Amino acid sequence: MSAPRPSSRPQLQGPGVLGRRYVRRAPGAPLEVATPRQAQAPTKEAPPAAPRTGILSSSRLVPLFIGVLVACQLALLVEAIAPLRVLVRILAFGLSLALLVLVPGRGARHPAVPFVVGSLAITTLNFFHPGTVSPMAGVVQLGIQLSIIAPLFWVTRLSIDSRVFRLTLTLLFLFNTASASVGVLQVYFPGRFQPAMSAAVQAQGDSYLRSLEFETASGARVFRPMGLTDMPGGAATGGFYAVLLGSGFLLSSRKGLSRALSVVGILVGLLCLYLCQVRAIALTLGVCLAAMAGMLVLTGRVARLAKLMAVVGMASVFAFGWAVAVGGDAVQKRWDSLFEAKPEEVYHSNRGRFLEGTFEYFLPEYPLGAGLGRYGMANAYFGDNSDPAQPPLWAEIQWTAWVYDGGIVVVVLYPLALLATMAWVLQMARRREDAGDEFWLWGSVIFAYNLGALALTFSYPFFMSQVGMEFWLLNAALFGAWTHAKTLHAHRR
Q1: DSSP letter string over 156-183?
Q2: Which of 109, 220, 412, 448 could form a disulfide with 292 if both were Cys (CB 3.0 to 4.6 A apart)?
Q3: Residue 467 CB: number of other CB atoms within 10 A?
Q4: pTM for the whole thing?
């Protein structure tokens, strides 16, 4: 026989026991006889922890941070701020680093964290590489890379809801639509809406600058639209995001005004893309829209798929005719060249040779990295290029930059971070939400966005720029919003 279970109730001990009071000092603890003072005094519960207050603990910090990034980008276009250009560029990255330290709490762990931390650790070790001839430039490069991935850590510490996430996307959509609109005006009215051009571009010489111009239908020579950037052709990025995010708002908006703005953003974005003549970004957009359509098919949202195809299809045809009418034969010939050869041949004749050189020459030359501060903004502003044995390097695409940063290990780890991010977002996009938050829809949009970012690594150093920071910010915000929603509504799991 098993031993009798001990009782948690105190045993009766003679006369007077009915007048006693009993207390339980902890959940599950046995009852104890209370002293007269304990019997009279009410039990006091520990006061609840005070919620964190202040802007550093508020989810509004995310759209506010986007606003600062936009302000920094616009400040670069003002000629009077040209002497402070370096400080303005540092502000955007420095603010991300500051928030990494100042935002309190402990965030949820994003699936990409182990890979980006490993990649950054290898890059940090590369600081001691003999090729790091300028310690200051090396420190700046490490700071830039840490600031780009920092949103993965500080954004997930905030209690973001679906409304704040949507506001963040709205700000990005409006800014990129504005950039694409200004780009179109720069072709319509040559010289009237032209911002100050980047000094780095001007330093390339007259022949390079002429290659960035084209003759419009009116006979005027103009640079490829810069939009709200300082780079010829830079408005193409605004057009890309205007179309992609506009497609998401088109499918999710229930108000007529929001849908109308989405359609305008899609139309203006496509028109700007055609005028910029940046074929790589246009092809990337096509892949992204195909991925979004595929997710809609996979989840059985046929009505939304039909809406997306109808709007984007008609806008594509109308915008192309409009672009040719404004841009003339130069626009027509540029886009016709896409069909004169196979897509892989078109890519190889442009950016493909940089990818080929990365794996055939640079990776065997720098299997463990080339040292820090030898390329990009860090080298341009802080590098020491006086040693002919360690000349500055040029990274035309992101894969080359990864080789310089840490060789084969970084080339493996950072893409794995992107794949882990895409796998989680894909899982979210395939869900069938019972709530009205429509995380599946924004999961589909962000999946397409992530696919586009991966494709753009083959065109330019995406994760050495502000758009790379925006990439991790959006993914961290989606992850944080989803985590917050599931914690707040645990009964839905």
Answers
A1: GGS---HHHHHHHHHHHHHHHHHHHHHH
A2: 448
A3: 17
A4: 0.81
